[in-house]
TrEMBL record, chain B:
Species per Swiss-Prot/TrEMBL record: Desulfotomaculum copahuensis
Function: NDH-1 shuttles electrons from NADH, via FMN and iron-sulfur (Fe-S) centers, to quinones in the respiratory chain. Couples the redox reaction to proton translocation (for every two electrons transferred, four hydrogen ions are translocated across the cytoplasmic membrane), and thus conserves the redox energy in a proton gradient.
The protein's name: NADH-quinone oxidoreductase subunit J
EC number: 7.1.1.-
GO annotation, cellular component aspect: plasma membrane
Length: 106, 170
């Protein structure tokens, strides 16, 4: 453990920690934009995992890097649509507090 | 795989920056400051991608995340936030439950990633990553590539329509 080498396990633990921070933010923030930001953190944790697998498991096939490109594409689209939805909700409700969004409550 | 002392030092330094800035993103009370620390986190992640031999992905990370996503989120905040900015990023009432769930996820995933025996190869990643990615994206993965382009187009149109608020003609 003290041999000071960086392998797949270290990258996976870092990715798990970053994913955990993002998940905590998603579950516990009031502001809708903060939840969107924390989803971005979780997607970046996934990217770390994909690139680490690409380097340490299949270094010559580039599958992980191509998956990471698609993850970045989907994340950019998700931020655009998510912000537009939040702006549209704010226009109706004059709030971005997720606890007040209860139109679907029966 | 080069395990020189500089790569190890770079990994731990970048990991520390990533984790601290991600914690600041979650725990700061002003959402604009959160977004600024999010940009720091993304740039440190780009450095981490460089240690993983993914130089094209590092450039894309800086361009798309630190450049586009953070600026777009800041513009979104400018369009919707009013009043006291110091209390715009608070916790809700289920923070304790969230901490418990996250601790469970961390324990399970950490145990699994430490206990699994990974079958790795020692072959290095080829140096010209951009050429390999371009060839694969336009030959073997051309269908997902085009679908991603369509997804971006649809997201663009959808975001414009949602933000523009189509008025009902009555």
């Amino acid at each position: 453990m003290l041999t000071l080498s960086v392998g797949l396990t270290q990258y996976m633990v870092l990715s798990a920690i970053l994913f955990g921070i993002g998940l905590f933010g998603v579950l516990s923030k009031k502001n809708a934009i903060a939840v969107l930001i924390c989803i971005e953190l979780m997607l970046n944790a996934v990217n770390i995992n994909l690139l680490a697998f690409n380097k340490f498991v299949t270094p010559t096939q580039f599958i992980g890097q191509i998956f990471a490109i698609f993850v970045i594409t989907v994340a950019a689209a998700e931020v655009g649509v998510g912000l537009a939805i939040i702006i549209a909700i704010y226009r109706n409700k004059l709030s971005v507090n997720l606890d007040e969004f209860d139109w679907l409550k029966w | 795989m080069d395990n020189s002392i500089w790569m190890v030092a770079a990994f731990y330094l970048l990991s520390a920056v990533i984790i601290v800035s991600a914690l600041l993103v979650v725990f700061l009370k002003n959402i604009v400051h959160s977004v600024l620390w999010l940009a720091v986190c993304f740039i440190a992640l780009a450095g981490l991608f460089l240690t993983l031999d993914a130089d094209f992905l590092a450039a894309v990370q800086v361009l798309v995340y630190a450049g586009a996503v953070c600026i777009m989120v800041v513009f979104g905040i400018m369009l919707i936030q009013r009043g006291d900015m110091g209390k715009t990023n608070l916790f809700n009432s289920q923070t304790g439950v969230a901490a418990g769930v996250v601790a469970l996820v961390l324990v399970v995933s950490g145990y699994l990633s430490a206990a699994t025996h990974w079958v790795g190869t020692a072959a290095p990643v080829p140096h010209k990553t951009v050429e390999h990615i371009a060839t694969l994206l336009l030959s073997k993965y051309v269908i997902p590539f085009e679908v991603a382009a369509l997804l971006l187009l649809v997201a663009l149109v959808g975001a414009i329509i949602l933000a523009k608020e189509v008025k009902a003609k009555c």
